[in-house]
Design brief:
Blueprint (H helix, E strand, L loop, with lengths): L10 H13 L4 H12 L23 E8 L2 E8 L2 H14 L4 H6 L4 H4 L2 H4 L2 H24 L1
Antiparallel strand pairs: 1-2
Helix pairs in contact: 1-3, 2-3, 3-7
Length: about 150
């Protein structure tokens, strides 16, 4: 599985890049459009991976996530049937994909509050984003425990 995200050297730098990009937009209509545009950049997920085992529960939309790698480097591929949720997935994977388990576990997703997502997402989307971030952390913890 190959990461197709702009990979900044660290998760902290990825979060700062996200903050900088969202600062360009004057209102939430523009930010939502940007999220939709980002979601279109997600790499396609093979239909064979869209199984119940790979489905993320806690989302109103359908979301599937698959991980690969080990504690030294974890990669993720994910997709959703919702355009805005796909954009949220893109942001999360931009921060966490291709990182070590230790870096993932040490990096709180501060970009969520910093760009205003926590105030502007519906409760169901917010719950889904929380579930996605929790799955990434659980995967990192399991990889670190197995190392």
């Amino acid at each position: 599985m190959t990461t197709t995200f702009p990979i900044e050297p660290t998760a902290a730098e990825a979060q700062q890049a996200i903050r900088d990009e969202f600062a360009f937009f004057g209102d939430w209509a523009e930010r939502y459009q940007y999220l939709i545009d980002l979601g279109r950049k997600l790499p396609p997920m093979d239909e064979a991976l869209r199984t119940e085992d790979n489905r993320l529960l806690g989302c109103q939309s359908k979301v599937w996530i698959v991980s690969s790698g080990d504690a030294s480097k974890l990669d993720f591929i994910a997709t959703s049937d919702s355009a805005i949720v796909s954009g949220l997935i893109f942001l999360a994977l931009r921060v966490y994909a291709g990182r070590s388990a230790a870096e993932i576990l040490a990096t709180e997703p501060t970009f969520v509050a910093d760009i205003g997502l926590s105030k502007h997402l519906s409760p169901t989307r917010s719950n889904g984003l929380s579930a996605l971030l929790a799955r990434i952390r659980e995967t990192a913890q399991a990889a670190q425990d197995a190392a």
